Amino acid sequence: MSDVNNEEKKNQSLNDEIKEFNKEHGVTLDSPLVVHKKGDVSFEEKTDAYEMNETHAGEARPTLVRHRFKKEKKSSKKPYIIIAVIVVLAAVFAGLYYTGNITFGEKETTAKQTTESTTEDLVEKYKGTIVVKETYIFVDGIEVNGIEGLQNALKYEDPSPTAYEIIVDDEDSNFYNFEVLQLLTDMGFFDKTTQVTHLDKTGLVAKAEMTTAQDEVVTETTATTAPASTTE
Fold first, then answer.
1. Containing H/E element for 131?
2. What mean pLDDT comes out for the span 208-231?
3. What average pLDDT is seen over the chain?
4. N or C: which end of the chain has fewer CB within 10 A?
5. What number is the average pLDDT over the span 76-99?
6. How far apart are CA 189 and CA 127, in angstroms?
7. Where are the alpha helices (H) located in the chain, listed in sequence order?
8. CA separation (Å) from 134 to 170, 188, 205?
9. Partners of 171 in the beta sheet?
10. Does the pTM of the predicted model rise above 0.85?
11. Strand 196-199 vs strand 165-171: parallel, antiparallel, or unpaired?
């Protein structure tokens, strides 16, 4: 019996020391735990499960903040390179154009217009004439196919020795006298009253002459540009 009393005194003394310690250090004890029985009205069974991390749900969490820093622009040399390329190309094209290596169609068009204009002028100039240039024949300023072409050009015309003026340019005597004049006489377009004129240069050019001239230019150009032969 004395042992029980001694134990109670020890416990009481310990409790007093704890209370005194808590009082000195400002420790506040929680309210005593009240246990409710399942049959009591105040008992409510809570079946929700709690996880350990839910005890910290209300704590502030750090957030990730992204910072963007404006990059400092470096001076680019690209515009200067483009300008330099344009200047070089312009210089190359200008050189090729002025040396005649390239054309933009203007020269060709101008040459074509000049040729057509010259042809029209010659046709108008030699209208009403028969021009005999060596073995080439032009009626009204237009080339015909030799003696046969001359006959075809005149067969629907009214025969008259004064209908056409005969112009001779670089005469081929045999062709002129024995073929041209003979045909014109037979068709009624030549006699003593027909006007005959001799000209050094009429300006009329036959197709065969143009082809020959082009071939000569090509031959001369080839000979000029051909590499000189070397002998050992």
1. strand 129-134
2. 60
3. 75
4. C
5. 83
6. 16
7. 2-25, 78-98, 106-125, 146-154, 173-175, 181-187, 207-225
8. 5, 23, 11
9. 134
10. no
11. parallel
Residue where the block lists tokens 């929680």 = 30
Instruction: Tell which residue, 184, 196, 133, 182, has the closest CA to residue 155.
Output: 184
DSSP state of 205: -
Strand partners, 33: none
Q: How far is CA 212 from CA 88, 142, 200, 218, in A?
A: 42, 19, 20, 10
Residue 126 to residue 202: CA distance in whole angstroms:
9
**In the block, residue with structure tokens 């704890």:** 18
Instruction: Return d(Cα 27, Cα 43) in angstroms, integer.
Output: 30
Dihedral of CA atoms 96, 98, 102, 105 in degrees, nearest 10, equals: 150
Cα–Cα distance measured from residue 85 to residue 216, given in angstroms and rounded to the nearest whole number: 42
User: CA 147, CA 178: separation in Å to the nearest integer?
Assistant: 11
Span 148-173, average pLDDT:
94
Is residue 177 a contact partner of residue 208, using CB atoms and an 8 Å limit? no
